Amino acid sequence: MKIAIGSDHAGLPLKRALLAEGLSGHEVVDVGTHSEGSTDYPIYAFKVARLVASGEADFGVLICGTGIGMALAASRVPGVRPAVCTSEYMARMARADNDANVLCLGGRVLGPGQALEILKVFLNTKFEGGRHARRLRMIEEGGGV
Questions:
Q1: Which residue range is the domain that position 106 belongs to?
Q2: % of the chain residues with pLDDT over 70
Q3: Beta partners for residue 4, in sequence order
Q4: 3-state SS of the chain: helix, strand, coil percent to 5?
Q5: Is the pLDDT of residue 145 over 70?
Q6: What is d(CA 102, CA 51) in angstroms, rounded to the nearest whole number?
Q7: What is the rounded distance in angstroms from the CA atom of residue 11 to the CA atom of residue 142?
Q8: How many structural domains are present in the chain?
Q9: What is the strand order of the sheet 27-30 is part of?
């Protein structure tokens, strides 16, 4: 599986932990940041989102202070379905029900152990399809009512 990962300065320590322990066995594309200096999260959100949308990566992982900014930016790229997850349950539902393809984590919200477990669940949960696929089509079409 090919995973694109990116973070801003606030997410860098957690990104390093995930790279060291959580992504072994996967092909990883690290788009940055590689520095602890202040940087703008949309740069990395768009890089990862474009890799996922183009099919160059199977999934994306984005990390900022809360995960929220990354999710907002990544959601602007068509075909990308980011999900901020703070628990294993949220990660499971994001994949099973919403076919999320970018996991957004908060480096100032989660510890490395919890983030690793969330990542593991996210990458190993399959989309259920069925009624959930119908709902995703409604979102893609911009309506449904």
A1: 2-141
A2: 98
A3: 29, 60
A4: 45, 15, 40
A5: no
A6: 11
A7: 31
A8: 1
A9: 27-30, 2-7, 59-64, 102-106, 82-84
Q: Is the pTM of this model over 0.90?
A: yes
- Say which CATH number the domain at 122 has: 3.40.1400.10
Cβ-proximal residues to 38 (8 Å cutoff; 6+ apart), any chain: 9
Residue 132 structure tokens? 């959930």
Q: Is 85 a catalytic residue?
A: no
Per residue in 48-65, pLDDT (tens digit) is: 999 999 999 999 999 999
Of 60, 84, 88, which is closest to residue 72 (Cα–Cα)?
A: 84
Given the residues 12, 18, 64, 100, select the one marked as catalytic.
64
d(CA 23, CA 142) in angstroms, rounded, equals 34
